[in-house]
Design a protein that fits this description.
By secondary structure, the protein is an alpha/beta fold. It is built from eleven helices and 14 strands. Helix content is about 35%, strand content about 20%.
């Protein structure tokens, strides 16, 4: 492996500053020079050393190994550098932030088959509905609906189009009637969802004659747990609203009744997303390939 040793101080500046512009100011060079230097270094190793977005820079596992290597006595550095990239076999910790409503990813079979195919990859899945910078938080990838993924990310389809659905138990509808238009929901007992205690309940979104609108229902029951929403609806507590696939098994058996279907069009589904495709780490590359085959 032939490494330009002049690039190593540049890497250390980036690693310590967590920012290309700050590293450039520290070294007295342009931000473009830092970016190009990092690219040359990554090409030499054949792997990503940092993940970067328009907002942040974060060391990869290989980057952490390089920073550790550079802290060793000079006599050991040449040997340590050869270990930074490692071999091509996928290995290491793969951290993924996944929205709680990504049923296809969280249902089990996809992850189980990936774990079987890649025994040296350790998978850490954080289920969260908070929106944040996955790079700054140290995640390798995330799973979200396409409409909320930042544009500087690379997104790989995980599912087909999705559709939301309003549902209620037959007993509730028999006692309280069936709404014919979404605006009638404000007169019904509703079961709502919100991602966190300090966030307003999710507004229920519909479309009529090609024009989108939402209804600000006032839920009698609000939770961040889809299972509680589902169980409450099955028990006749009211009308609830979530992705159609969440309710499908119960609709098929008649335990829940779909409502207002003419006002609920499909929309783009779930994507696996991650920053920067160049010199992708083997552990992430095989996950992307697995997702593509799975779909």
């Amino acid at each position: 492996m032939k490494i330009d040793m002049n690039l190593l101080p540049l890497f250390l500046a980036v690693a310590e500053e967590d920012n290309f512009r700050a590293a450039a100011d520290r070294l007295g060079v342009t931000r473009s020079a830092v970016s190009q230097g990092m690219r040359r270094l990554e090409d030499a190793f054949g792997t990503m050393l940092v993940t970067r977005t328009t907002r942040s820079v974060h060391l990869t596992e290989a980057g952490e190994r390089l920073r550790e290597a550079l802290s060793q006595p000079m006599s050991d550095i040449a040997t340590a550098l050869d270990r930074v990239a490692g071999d091509d076999e996928p290995r290491g910790l793969l951290r993924i932030a996944v929205t709680s409503i990504a049923e296809q990813f969280l249902s089990g079979p996809l992850l189980a088959s990936f774990a079987e195919a890649c025994p040296h990859v350790t998978i850490d899945v954080t289920v969260t509905d908070e929106e944040f910078d996955i790079v700054a938080a140290g995640f390798d990838a995330g799973v979200r609906l396409g409409e909320v993924i930042e544009q500087d990310m690379i997104a790989v389809p995980l599912s087909g189009d999705q559709r939301e659905s309003a549902v209620a138990a037959p007993a509730y509808l028999a006692a309280h009637g069936t709404p014919k238009h979404p605006r009638e929901l404000i007169r019904h007992r509703c079961i709502g969802w919100r991602p966190a205690p300090n966030v307003a309940p999710h507004r229920w979104e519909f479309e009529e004659n090609g024009i989108p609108f939402d209804v600000a229902v006032e839920p009698q029951i609000t939770t961040n747990d889809l299972r509680l929403m589902l169980r409450s609806a099955l028990s006749g507590a009211g009308i609830t609203f979530a992705l159609e696939e969440t309710f499908r098994p119960y609709v098929e058996t008649g335990r829940l009744v779909p409502l207002l279907q003419d006002f609920l069009p499909p929309f783009p589904g779930f994507f696996l997303y991650f920053p920067h495709k160049r010199n992708m780490a083997p552990k992430l590359r095989v996950l992307v390939e697995h997702v593509r085959r799975w779909r």
